[in-house]
């Protein structure tokens, strides 16, 4: 039987999500798929039949460009399929049948895996033979049953490199100052933890690391800073956007916190709140830096291991479809120096969140332990060594 | 007579200010200087005799590291010498005489050249034979009588690369949205102008460019955005931090604008003000991104031409000292494919500001003209071509 597939991208971008798209296209071309469609803006666009033909990627030059293009070539959406809304599921299946789609691929994070779960379950109920396959990506690194999510290593590389440069910039004036760098991560501190990479090369350059895994206490926070500023002039803090107080409330200037379609909190920057807090209580110079969208789209600092695996994971998804797998997510695991591809039942992934291991956090010193470094370095650096630039520090200052 | 020199760094950092320091050290080592001192934290540290011996840089390995180190190896200060305060000038000369300094080098921007002017003038009056030589650096590119200031090309490279990635990130959702990117520049839009580099490779990806050279009008600003959003979903705006209204007031959320020692205004972000303005009047999604300190310290995106010239300009300053020049600033000018070094009377530089040429601004379309591109490209790209990454765009979106 001739095969026709459709590929979508969903959620927030990463630097390697287009490499995964390229991997699926490459795999489909190799397996002689009759048609390779792309959804424009994920499910959102599919419902309006906004699709493109991706066969033009037979031209290898464009495929290479696609691999290295940041953000999302096909555009994204944050479309939530509600459990009880059968009509939407039916409409999607009807559209897919109209185009004789045999395989449906969705590249995304937790919310996209929720979509794969809903559609594959519905398809089974109504005996529809379309394969629904999830392909992971997220800079948050919070998907279950996978060693790491493509996109995360590149984001870590950006965060560590930028923090290193910010640390060098922060110490130039001989005055007491605090620099707060706010890093993405609503529920888990995976990305913020990469700040510790800087300390491995330049010891004690990042003074305090705060993540959502631990309760944020304002008084303790101020005491920690006071303590640091007794010993040195400059205190540099890496903090997850999603830190919460003992009542589970986000630490933010914005009292009117909004929720998106998936019910996730969206706040307007804990760093600005913390800046005001420090200014009010300690009276020293404070700078708040948000790495903003750059941490998820800085293609010029992509991890090559990340790109390679993202590409492989895309091709592997085609193998899964040819094996008639449905209701699965493709996975990746590290075994010695190899990354192995496999797949897992989508129910074991969707709507679960993998927290950062508490035992990897040195909560007393607000640092991250060596176990994390051993975990993350092989995802970013081929040499197995942290390759932050070799800068020179004037120790006497 | 044996020579002893002292070198200081002052003002805000650039990615190549340490390359210039390395150039002075290299030149001094070659000319067999008996002593090479570094001031810790500029004039501020010199007054407390906080100095380091830089002879250790005979080790080439450390010199190479120094060339590529961001921020300021010796630390900085923002110390203003007041015209009438003879006692400070006298104290500085006394300290320099104590260490038998023959040549004083100060690497910095406009404020540092003010320091060189004050000290060289005072030295002449009291027949002190020390040579006072200014060496330019500033990402602001606003020094007079020089073709460009070292540090500026690298900052442009960072701004253009980051804006390009932000532009790709901004268009992924099919909703009306505005992205404001705030770029450094209190008085001149030199750095913000580099946003136009993105448009040269990806036409119309940066929609509007606002600089301090033109009066900022809120109503016109909102109309421009409305107009853009009629034609496309996403509007991306590059804006200088220093834009001002018709009364010369900074556009900022912060009503309590403060001044630094040199009387410069310091505001807390026009992008947050503009975000609120757009949110209140147009009601679409708005994101405000401040490139913050990264635009002046992102060594990983340095321009190699910038590094090379910064190094050369440092060595050349030593030649000027050997020729017994004082009260000068070293300059650089572009002649066909060559960069020529020379020097200029410090009075022609200090406390003047080179504005961005009004004739290079397409004020009607809020864009920058080709004349600027022809000026800036040879400072950044050796090939003479803009080397932004070759990404792939889905034109149908």
TrEMBL record, chains A, B:
Record GO terms (molecular function): 6-phosphofructokinase activity; diphosphate-fructose-6-phosphate 1-phosphotransferase activity; metal ion binding
Q: Which residues does the UniProt site feature Important for catalytic activity and substrate specificity point to?
A: 111
Keyword set includes Ligase: no
**Gene Ontology biological process terms, A to Z:** fructose 6-phosphate metabolic process
Q: Which residues form the active site?
A: 140 (proton acceptor)
Query: If you read the UniProt record, what top EC class would you report for this enzyme, in one word?
Result: transferase
| The reaction(s) this protein catalyses | beta-D-fructose 6-phosphate + diphosphate = beta-D-fructose 1,6-bisphosphate + phosphate + H(+)
Residues binding Mg(2+) are 110
Which positions in this protein are listed as binding substrate? 138-140, 184-186, 241
Q: What is its EC number?
A: 2.7.1.90
Chief location bin: cytoplasm
- Residues forming the Phosphofructokinase domain are 5-320
| Activity control, per UniProt | Non-allosteric.
At which positions is diphosphate bound?
A: 12
Q: What's a single GO CC term here?
A: cytoplasm
| Record carries keyword Magnesium | yes
**Site: Important for catalytic activity. Where?**
137
| Pathway stated in the Swiss-Prot or TrEMBL entry | Carbohydrate degradation; glycolysis; D-glyceraldehyde 3-phosphate and glycerone phosphate from D-glucose: step 3/4
- Tell me the SUPFAM superfamilies matching this sequence: Phosphofructokinase
Q: Give the InterPro entries listed for this entry.
A: ATP_PFK (IPR022953), PFKA (IPR050929), Phosphofructokinase_dom (IPR000023), PKF_sf (IPR035966), PPi-PFK (IPR011404)
Protein family per UniProt: Belongs to the phosphofructokinase type A (PFKA) family. PPi-dependent PFK group II subfamily. Clade 'B2' sub-subfamily.
Q: How does it assemble?
A: Homodimer.
Job description of the protein: Catalyzes the phosphorylation of D-fructose 6-phosphate, the first committing step of glycolysis. Uses inorganic phosphate (PPi) as phosphoryl donor instead of ATP like common ATP-dependent phosphofructokinases (ATP-PFKs), which renders the reaction reversible, and can thus function both in glycolysis and gluconeogenesis. Consistently, PPi-PFK can replace the enzymes of both the forward (ATP-PFK) and reverse (fructose-bisphosphatase (FBPase)) reactions.
Q: What is this protein called?
A: Pyrophosphate--fructose 6-phosphate 1-phosphotransferase
What gene does this protein come from? Answer: pfp
